[in-house]
Amino acid sequence: MIPISWYLILAAALFSIGLFGVLARKNAVAILLGVELMLNAVNINLVTFWRYNAPAEVTGQVFAIIVFAVAAAEVAVGLALIISIYRNRNTIVADDLDLMKW
Amino acid sequence: MFNSSMILAILPEILLLLLGLLILILDIVLKGKDGRNLGWVAAGGLLFILVLNVFLAKPTMPTDVFGGMIRYDMLGYVFKMLFIFGAMLTSLFMMDSEKLGNRGESYILLLVATIGMNLMASATDLIMLYLAIETTSIPMYILAGFMRDDKKSTEAGLKYLLFGAMASTVMLYGFSLIFGFTGTTALGAISGFSLPLALGVIVLILVGIAFKISLAPFHFWAPDVYEGAPTPITGFLSTASKAAGFAVLMRLFIGLFPPASAYAPSWTLIMAVLATITMTVGNVVALSQSNIKRMLAYSSIAHAGYALVGVVSLSELGVGSVTFYLIAYVLTNLAAFGIIAAFSKVTGSEKISDFAGMSRRNSGLALAMLVAFLSLTGMPPFGGFVAKVFVFAAAVKADMVWLAIVGILNSIVGLYYYLTVLKVVYLHRMEGENEEAHPIPLSRPYAIALSVLSAGILLIGIIFGPWFNIASSAAAGLF
């Protein structure tokens, strides 16, 4: 069997890539995508821990299912907000959203 | 399997859901006409829920219900009543907000967010906790960006969502690691992982909670979102949402690190440093603000710091004092934002200099502002004073005298910017000195809500004994 650490390293890498995307990308959609990558990393973690630690219990699976249900809701709201910003301002670049500063 | 304590444990949530459905149906029946009256339905319904729960749903001894997902205890109960009270006054403030008040959805979203907060205050399982936090956050993202044609509001909504989604995901990564190391998601059963690992996981989780209560390194969203969001929503966001974050913070971390545990000292130190930074940053940056909502946003960051002083002491007195602090703070800040909503509805301005001559334009509103702002500074005989005394007392009792001194010094800084606003309100004159020609009429919902809040601030400040007993009984359940 593949050692558990492989999966955890994959998840940690995916999480870091997502976090980098959130912090470095300018486009609001790309930032949202970064958040999705981070959430997927969490799901890999959850499913791995479930499979290796307690395959008899459903806790890990339930947690993962709830996480992607919430992620879908969050993205729906996020895209709706991005659309309404685009209609008002004709831009979705995060740096241009600077009406409020200090 | 089912018994009465299970129903009682989630009675507020059930009733809130029913009220939401009622408003949804009424909204369809009315076909968008008279939408404003839905605010009366929401406020009346919430008052009914509050009264019913005060008499029926008071827990006698802590029990875990629904397979350990929810704990039915005084801490959750006190916070739930606080959130329902906050939502009731917020729906009154929302009624005369131009873009919010006529839309049934806004009240439903408010109620859903309140359900989420109620669950946050009582969740004792990581899955339930995450779900509750998101149930609170997602409706709040929508409400912050509710005014679709308003550039600032949509910007506030998107910023809140992007920061919030990131912070809660980092926290979730921490949850997944806890699940991995301990094999369980129940808070009660989580214990005993090694110090370096525990500290790493704690930092991840702290990011999410620090975002919710806007602690210093994670406070950047707060001023922007508070400024852009519709003012009644800002009030709700800065009070109930923050109180819910504190409820989670106390339950989670006192569960994870009992005061006797070996990790408690390092955790206390982290929290003390965070509290110091938060108080200082909030107060110092607030000094230079010209927009009143932004100033109050920084002031609410500072207040999160004061409340955190109570958490640091990791004692029963500490948790009780934080609960009391939050009760006083919810009343005070709701009043402050309600006054601003009433003012800017008439004048269309949120600049501090435009508050000149307000005491002559509407003396009642100015009086309410005096009460709210003096309570924010921590002047006797208002609620804010007693709350600060208890929090600092808890710090002194936990041998953290320096933290109490930092807090007191910060209160003095705070005094300056709160009193500056009051000076503008009472001593400055409008341009042209014809204030009588520009009255600020108060509609009935505002008048009711502001009188209730002002009376409440005074009541908590003068007769604080019974309120502190309630707060202490909430704390007793945790230890």
Low-confidence stretches of chain A: none
User: From the alpha-carbon coordinates, what is the Rg of chain A to the nearest angstrom?
Assistant: 17 Å
Order of strands, widest sheet of chain B: 1-2
End-to-end distance of chain A, in Å?
54 Å
Question: Which helices and strands occur, and which strands form pairs?
Answer:
The complex is a heterodimer of chains A (102) and B (479).
Chain A: H1 4-24, H2 28-53, H3 59-89
Chain B: H1 4-9, H2 11-30, H3 37-56, E1 63-65, E2 70-72, H4 74-95, H5 104-122, H6 126-144, H7 151-182, H8 195-212, H9 221-228, H10 231-256, H11 264-286, H12 292-312, H13 316-347, H14 358-361, H15 363-377, H16 383-397, H17 401-426, H18 444-462, H19 465-476
Antiparallel strand pairs in B: 1-2
Describe the structure.
- The complex is a heterodimer of chains A (102) and B (479).
- Chain A contains three helices and no strands.
- In chain A, 34% of the residues are buried.
- The longest helix of chain A is centred in the C-terminal third of the chain and has 31 residues, at 59-89.
- Chain A is an all-alpha fold and 102 residues long.
- Chain A has a single domain, classed as Helix Hairpins (Orthogonal Bundle).
- Chain B has helices at residues 4-9, 11-30, 37-56, 74-95, 104-122, 126-144, 151-182, 195-212, 221-228, 231-256, 264-286, 292-312, 316-347, 358-361, 363-377, 383-397, 401-426, 444-462, 465-476, and strands spanning 63-65, 70-72.
- In chain B, 75% of the residues lie in helices and 1% in strands.
- Chain B has two domains: 1-256; 261-479, no CATH class.
- Chain B starts with a helix and ends with a helix.
- The model of chain B has no long low-confidence stretch (mean pLDDT 90).
- In chain B, a hairpin with a 4-residue loop joins strand 1 and strand 2.
- Chain B is globular, with a radius of gyration of 21 Å.
- Chain B has a two-stranded antiparallel ribbon with strand order 1-2.
- In chain B, helix 2 (11-30) packs antiparallel against helix 3.
- By secondary structure, chain B is mainly α.
- Chain B contains 19 helices and two strands.
- The chains are: A mainly alpha (102), B mainly alpha (479).
- At the A-B interface, helix 1, helix 2 and helix 3 of A face helix 6, helix 7 and helix 9 of B.
- Chain B: Belongs to the complex I subunit 2 family.
- Chain B: The chain crosses the membrane at residues 6-26, 38-57, 77-95, 107-123, 160-181, 187-211, 243-261, 267-288, 295-314, 326-344, 365-395, 401-425, 446-468.
- Chain B: Residues 123-412 form the NADH:quinone oxidoreductase/Mrp antiporter transmembrane domain.
- Chain B: It is a multi-pass membrane protein.
- Chain B: It catalyses: a quinone + NADH + 5 H(+)(in) = a quinol + NAD(+) + 4 H(+)(out).
